């Protein structure tokens, strides 16, 4: 669903939670492997596991989608404030002899967009983070993260875990797992600020 009536603050917080607050692998999960005598003792660590080309490509697309979702949600959250700053620069140019308000506005907008792009590009998203986000979006219960934890080839249960993850990665779309939502409230705010900016631009300068 493209449209979402939740405030973009909630959207931004939800994506930040997806990126930063995944549960750690605890002793209980390690104990699952230890209960099977056929498996040699091994340390199960977060993000450890076999990745086929199919699953590696799927998680790479999920990471790209997460970056895009974060960028859109963050832009919607802060865009009205940037727009108000641009309107303030235009108003200053209209009321005073300062005649570089339009240039200042474009410079501010450019800096905002570049900053968003750079931060989104370097967001630290591991395979585990991408797997957890995909599971949440697809409603799959720990299919990908379990496959990252348990990867012993000599055990039939582990092979089934890997097969389930491989099948789900083959049939799933990142756009379904990580939807891009648009906040209507922020767009209405932007439209209002844009109307004010247009009115200032059409009025003769007073400065």
Q: Helical proportion? A: 55-70%
Rg (C-alpha, Å): 24 Å
What gross morphology would you assign? elongated
Number of helices: 9
What letter string, H or E per element, gives the SSE order? Answer: EHHHHHHHHEH
What's the end-to-end separation, in Å? Answer: 48 Å
**Unreliable parts:** 1-6, 18-48
* SS class: mainly alpha
| Overall average residue pLDDT | 77
Strand order of the largest sheet: 1-2
* % residues in beta strands: under 5%
**Major beta sheet summary:** 2 strands, parallel
Number of strands: 2
Task: Produce the secondary structure layout.
Blueprint: E1 3-4, H1 8-20, H2 27-34, H3 53-95, H4 101-121, H5 127-138, H6 143-149, H7 156-171, H8 174-177, E2 182-183, H9 184-202
Parallel strand pairs: 1-2
